[in-house]
Amino acid sequence: MWQLDCVFISLNFSGKSDVAKKLAEELDMLYMPDATLDDHYINSYGFDMRKLNKELPESCRSFDLVDFHKSPAHKRSGVMQCIMYKMRYLRYVDALGHMLSTGQGVVLDRCCYSDIAFAEAMFKNNYMSKIGSISPPA
Fold it and tell me: What is the pTM of this model?
């Protein structure tokens, strides 16, 4: 039996999560929310590693979405994007594992493959260098 892997990609705060949750419920599928940097920075004991920023040199500090919105051209923006890509990739692998082990379909709120569109937009708006871009400039 074939199962569906459905991914919702849209602008932030556009309501895609609500639609994805309702679709998953209607189709009796598992809903998996988008990965967040909290998944990366909060350890298994519940400690938020970002609290250590003031004790660390700048090159070792965390850089999250709050920092990115304040300074999108910061040199750590690329690191943050790589971390988000990794988190979304792992979420996608979990979704595939769920489908293969249970036979139940999955509705994902974004995935690692949607990051390409965001990276290209960042490059076109000069928030990402040629080295960090997905595709060469036109």
Answer: 0.75
* Residue 49: both structure tokens together: 């590693």
- The confidence score (pLDDT) of residue 136 equals 47
Token pair in block for residue 38 = 């909290």
4: closest CA among 24, 22, 21?
24
Q: Which pLDDT tens digit goes with each residue over 69-103?
A: 898 888 888 888 889 889 999 999 999 999 999 98
Q: Encode 39-67: b = buried (16+ Cβ within 10 Å), e = exposed.
A: ebbeeeeeeeebeeeeeeeeeeebbbeeb
State the SS3 of the chain: CCCCEEEECCCCCCCHHHHHHHHHHHCCCEEECCCCHHHHHECCCCCEHHHHHHHCCHHHCCCCHHHHHHCCCCCCHHHHHHHHHHHHHHHHHHHHHHHHHHCCCEEEECCHHHHHHHHHHHHHCCCCCCCCCCCCCC
Contact 98, 6 (CB under 8 A): no
